[in-house]
Write a structure and sequence with these properties.
The chain contains four helices and five strands. It has 173 residues and is of the alpha+beta class. The protein has a five-stranded antiparallel β-sheet with strand order 2-1-5-4-3, sandwiched between helices. A hairpin with a 2-residue loop joins strand 4 and strand 5 (124-132). Helix 1 packs parallel to helix 4 (142-166) and helix 2 (24-39) runs antiparallel to helix 4 (142-166). The longest helix is centred in the C-terminal third of the chain and has 25 residues, at 142-166. Residues 169-173 have low confidence and may be disordered.
């Protein structure tokens, strides 16, 4: 096992906690909170694919982020979220304001070190978890990145299960 024992224990506890939620409205805040606490991020949000349009919408956010307009959407390739969606990999930038794919909208305040972690369902990206720091310089460790990938895997499974229970999607084949 590549993960340290404390990281493994944390992830095991988080996965069990996430699987206990049967309602999406209870699950999403818990995912965002756990990820935010894991890396000490100042803000975090979770965007999920829209079932009818080829966009993502922010499903839950927490932290110092400003209010988003009702019609705010994330398109593939746009911003750090869209880049994680397009690539299917974690995307990290040390200063979001200098990030070449940054969106021009001012909603993200003072985001500095920022990362986007894709969530997969049936080998397709169906969501993105964003974590950002606004304070002193932060560098994500390999253990944090590995832990967030695992957390994203657990979160995607829990989200899919909650959607089935909520009746918003049909079970897969």
């Amino acid at each position: 096992m590549g993960m340290s024992d404390p990281l493994y224990s944390l992830l095991k506890d988080v996965s069990l906690e996430l699987m206990r939620h049967s309602r999406l409205q209870d699950l999403l805040p818990d995912i965002v909170r756990r990820a935010q606490e894991f890396v000490g991020a100042d803000l975090a949000y979770l965007a999920l694919r829209d079932e009818y349009e080829d966009v993502m919408r922010v499903a839950f956010y927490r932290g110092t982020i400003r209010e988003l307009p009702v019609d705010y959407v994330i398109r593939i390739g746009e911003g750090i979220s869209g880049q994680a969606w397009a690539s299917g990999r974690i995307v990290v930038t040390d200063d979001y304001h200098r990030y070449s794919f940054r969106l021009p909208a001012p909603y993200w305040g003072d985001m500095k070190e920022t990362l986007a972690v894709p969530l997969f369902v049936n080998k397709s990206v169906w969501g993105v978890l964003i974590l950002a720091h606004t304070g002193p310089e932060k560098t994500y460790s390999a253990a944090e990145l590995e832990g967030l990938e695992q957390l994203a895997t657990f979160a995607a499974i829990a989200i899919e299960n909650a959607k089935i229970v909520d009746g918003s999607i049909e079970p897969g084949p």
